[in-house]
């Protein structure tokens, strides 16, 4: 089962596993990571030079408290995670000590637990030192640089985690202490609640000592602390009291920052914390999926995706058949028959492929053909972003006339035409329904009985989108100029057709839309199959010019479009 499936179908277990894994990782590598934050001698030298050169005392007094505050909060979080890991290790230690006590009756398990707690007080000491640094730095930090809502939510979350995890089971004193702190926090957050003075003691004339409810609560809290510490001959100081003080410190931090926090900010922070836990694996899955989709899009644009899928399917077929034979012995004869059929079909499929390859074998590829990606980097968008258009045009004019062979997707095409012959009558038997309707409409509105349609020579303007990168959603454009030899393509191409074209760079070099004069064109993926034109030779161009000259001579000959007694002239006979 993949990570995404585990998170989707077992969210509670996934969060629990991630929680314990994070605690274990931070406990094992937390010290090494904190030590790695200490700069070396070279970094210290660079820092001193930077401070002397760019930072004045006013800036230093502004930045230094902010750095100390957030660094201290980070140390507190890391130390807390180490405390949680130590508490889990203490539980395992108790289990093993009970097992050892069964073997050896005189084993003092309480003393062993106390020694274990005493030798692992370093995270607690670092935690309290970081707390003192954070409180001190807060007084010198600008209010605009303190994330009160986020720190309040973080401190409240850590309070709940540490109180539930670090407190001993059925520890009534811990619950009593936290209840007293909650009451005192309520009196602090709502100063309008002024309870009456419980007692007053006159120490001297005019000098009174008032015992308020808040003072009584504080004294009761100190009593709880003393009772915790006195457990097991004062071993409760580091077994019970110090772990409990960690949750108390986080609670006091939450109250300290809650005064300047907003309700909306706290809700936003809580949603961010819990949303990150559940949404981060899903976001990570999408981040892994996006490159795969981009790669598939690039392969599709390159015309390679279908070939790759077919190749993988054919390669996987023998393994699939072998797997079926291994799992189902009764299918051995059937699988063997399938193997023979697939082999025969594969051999037969090679015959038309060889025949088509022989008929449409492309001409030898020009070794000096300019790749599209190289042209794009030198004379297109990246070059235009790095230099002026005039500079790019000046440098790319040297490529005029260069032969290229690229692949792209049709985005648009237009045409223009000249020359023709007389219009014939509409014949329903020789025309389809659409053509007959168009012919009748034309006869009804036209003023001339002659047309030059038969001698049209078309020139097509085709706009092709070229790939620019895996994640680029704005493709580059290339402007193709195709003459009459490419009439079949110009009349049948649709937007989205994949083409491989060959031609010479003619104009627009160094601009966002270079122009090509086509000499070859074939479909890679088209809505309608069109016979490829692999190479237009010089002989084809000469034949086209001769045909055009003959069309002009025929157009201006005395036989063109003559009418007698108002009757239309008969269709001219092509020569």
UniProtKB/TrEMBL annotation:
Domain Wolframin cysteine-rich: 372-413
Keyword Transmembrane helix applies: yes
InterPro entries: Wolframin_Cys-rich, Wolframin_fam, Wolframin_OB_fold
TM ranges: 32-54, 60-84, 146-166, 173-191, 203-228, 240-259, 265-290, 302-324
UniProt keyword Oxidoreductase present: no
Domain Wolframin OB-fold: 455-533
GO annotation, biological process: calcium ion homeostasis; endoplasmic reticulum unfolded protein response
Keywords associated with the record: Membrane, Transmembrane, Transmembrane helix
Cellular component terms per the entry's GO annotation: endoplasmic reticulum membrane
A Pfam cross-reference name: WCOB
Alphabetical list of PANTHER family matching this protein: WOLFRAMIN
Protein's name according to its UniProt entry: Wolframin
Name of the gene this protein is made from: Wfs1
